[in-house]
Every structure is written in C-alpha cells, then in structure tokens.
Amino acid sequence: MHTDESVREATFDFRDLRRALGQFATGVNVVTARSGDGKPVGMTVNSFSAVSLNPPLVSWCVRREAPSAPAFIAASHFAVHVLDSSHAHIARQFSTPAPDKFAGIEFGTGIGGLPVLSGVIAHFECRNMRTVEVGDHIMLIGQIERYAARGGEPLIFHSGGFRSLSDIVT
Questions:
Q1: Distance between alpha carbon 63 and the CA centroid of its chain, in Å?
Q2: Distance of CA 85 to the CA centre of its chain
Q3: What is the DSSP string of 5-58?
Q4: 28 with 91: CB under 8 angstroms?
Q5: Which DSSP symbol is given to 83?
Q6: What is the value of pTM for the model shown?
Q7: Least CB-packed of 38, 69, 83, 167 within 10 Å?
Q8: What does the alpha-carbon distance between residue 43 and residue 134 come to, in Å, rounded to a whole number?
Q9: CA distance 143 to 53
C-alpha cells in the first residue's frame, strides 16, 4: 500500500518510455468522422478498445494538439476501422499530415454521413457519447450503432513498426 509520503513523482526519459510502451503490440485502426463543414477527417490510432457489450461502447484517444482533434470532439459520430495486414499504406496515409487523407482511398457513407473505409476487416459506426480529458490526450467514448466484420488478419503495431500476426507467430 502506498502512502502520500511513499509516492514520488517519477521523472521519465519520454523517448525511452515510448520505446518501452511500444513493446505492447496493438491493433492498427483508422478513425473517421465529418468536420462541422462536412469535410471528412481521419487519423490512424492504436488506442482503440472495447469498453462494454451492454450498452455496446468503445473508446479511443486523440492527442490534444492533433489538428483534427476539434473535429472529432465536435462530431456527432465517428467510425473505427480495423485494418487488414495488407493495409500498412492506409495506416501511413492517415498518420501523416496531408490536405486530403482520403485521396485514393475507397470509402462509402455510413450513419450521419460518416466516411466508412472499404476492405477493412471490421468497422464500428458510433455515436460520440462522451469525451474525457486524460493527460495530453482526450478519450472519446462511443456507442456502437452499426458494425460489420468480415474477418481477416489484422495489422499490428509493435516496436515502432507494422507487423502481421504471421510475423509474430512464425
């Protein structure tokens, strides 16, 4: 048990901490929404998590300073896309600044006009239910209103690079 006297604020080398956190393999996802002016916005995230089955809730985090953070926070809906192991190019495209992240990407329209990426192994169309300020990020919690899952091999992020399950298991 910790007492106030025994808990000290740790001083971390943030580059080393990031490397250590990178040892935890995560799935790679693209989150999309529509900004207030109707423009599609999207970004690559690895913070996606299931929260609850009843009601069906998921969460993900956006860095406060991310250029698209205000659009995601204000959007009524967002969609989370689970990328296939062949989609590293999509993950890279949505993780870098670009005037049109959707250029050359096939997508349809979901609930509330959401851009829904084609060919992903699963997607979740969510009502934006709540935001929570957490450190240098904002957590968005959404209630799933519609989803689809075709299955497949997911794209994984580990140690600063994209991997597939077959890379890890073999």
A1: 11
A2: 16
A3: TT-------HHHHHHHHTTS-EE-EEEEEE-TTS-EEEEEES--EEEEETTEEE
A4: yes
A5: P
A6: 0.87
A7: 38
A8: 19
A9: 10
